[in-house]
Design brief:
385 residues; alpha/beta; Rossmann fold; Dehydroquinate synthase-like, alpha domain; 14 helices; binds glycine
């Protein structure tokens, strides 16, 4: 895959813009204190804006409201539950009601302010209102910045599973304000780093080198200027990879599937743990499993497989899971919407930046790979819970 380096900012503090190609190209803007960029991303025709946010971000939502009102927009706020609780048909129906009461038309817009659950929900409501209105995503977690808010996957959960109802609806723009990351619990940042490391393994080795240089600087409660600069470069590089992939394959016909590296087992762990594990922690174990699978299948060398453990553990991410859960994990993986019929399908690596697929692996191979990540002690590390 050709490398697209993020366009360097004109000055060290200027925002970086990365364009995502597609039917309607859009920019991901990365920097510090970016509220003044929001009207430009909303566009000239928008009059009314609904800001969807969790309760913990009420003050930020009010700041957005004040700023947009000063620019002449009519602004409404809608508070939604935290995390996965937000992604329900009931919450979506509540938001459709708000849009209806406020007479939102096709030229009005939604802003999704929050983590990945909020941006998934906001995107879904924008995709479905009047068959699609503009949404600008303002992710406030690392995971949402480098993954959920970019790429146009939107959705809600049903009683039967995660993201079973949704739509591809690319945003009109994404605003990644890195200042937001410093007020979050360190565990949230660490969990987001799992997706950053994933991006390194599938497409950009420089990401791995940057993490390896000083992992403690990325997970420090109080970040140094050097840590901030590295984190910014990691976000820029991760977004650049995601932009390239989704620009080429919005609907996951083929290439986009590589973004699911580590997710087949990761999603299964999340399900078995009833979502008590953070997504990034589950994906961390999932990547080590996928690396072992590739190594045992003779497709990946020992050094790259071992590098998975070293880099993830250096960030404090888990790399093992309970040995007594294998049958339940297998059942969950078979139910995964990315499986083909009963055939299990994994993204695996043949080297760094060389993703490939492994379909219908021998059950003995699967069990042997799981033996490499399993442990007997009850689950539960600080990051997982
Ligand atoms: N989170 C994987 C994707 O956006 O395709």
């Amino acid at each position: 895959m050709p490398e697209t380096e993020p366009e360097a900012p004109a000055t060290p503090t200027a925002p970086t813009r990365i364009t995502v190609a597609g039917e309607r190209p859009y920019d991901v803007v990365i920097g510090q204190h970016l509220l003044d960029q929001l009207p430009g991303l909303l566009g000239e025709r928008v009059r009314r804006v609904l800001v969807i946010h969790p309760g913990a971000l009420t003050a930020s939502a009010e700041a957005v409201q004040e700023d947009l009102r000063a620019q002449g927009f009519e602004v409404f706020l809608a508070e939604v539950p935290e995390a996965e609780e937000a992604k329900s048909a009931q919450v979506a129906a509540f938001l459709w009601g708000v849009l209806g009461q406020a007479d939102f038309t096709r030229t009005d817009a939604i802003v999704g302010l929050g983590g990945g659950s909020t941006t998934d929900l906001a995107g879904f409501v924008a995709a479905t209102w009047l068959r699609g209105i503009r949404v600008v995503q303002v992710p406030t977690t690392l995971l949402a910045m480098v993954d959920a808010a970019v790429g146009g996957k939107t959705g809600i959960n049903t009683a039967e599973g995660k993201n079973l109802v949704g739509a591809f609806h690319p945003p009109a723009g994404v605003l990644c304000d890195l200042a937001a990351l410093e007020s979050l619990p360190v565990h949230d940042r660490t969990a987001g780093l799992a997706e950053v490391v994933k991006t390194g393994f599938i497409a950009d080795e420089r990401i791995l080198e940057l993490v390896e240089q000083d992992p403690a600087a990325l997970t420090a409660a109080v970040m140094t200027d050097a840590g901030r600069a590295t984190l910014r470069e990691l976000v820029e590089r991760s977004v650049a990879v995601k932009a390239r992939v989704v620009g080429e394959d919005l609907r996951e016909a083929d290439l986009r599937e590589i973004l699911n590296y580590g997710h087949t087992l990761g999603h299964a762990i999340e399900q078995v743990e009833r979502f008590a594990w953070r997504h990034g922690a589950a994906v961390s174990v999932g990547m080590v499993f996928a690396a072992e699978l590739a190594r045992l299948a003779g497709r990946l060398d020992d050094a790259v497989a071992d590098r998975h453990r070293t880099v993830l553990e250096s960030l404090g991410l888990p790399t093992t899971y309970r040995g007594d859960r294998w049958e339940r994990l297998l059942t969950a993986m078979r139910r995964d919407k990315k499986s083909r019929g009963d055939l299990l399908r994994f993204v695996v690596l043949e080297g760094i930046g060389r993703p490939s697929r492994l379909e219908g692996p021998d059950p003995a191979l699967l069990a042997a790979a799981y033996a490499e990540v399993s442990r007997e002690a009850p689950s539960g590390t600080a990051i997982s819970l």
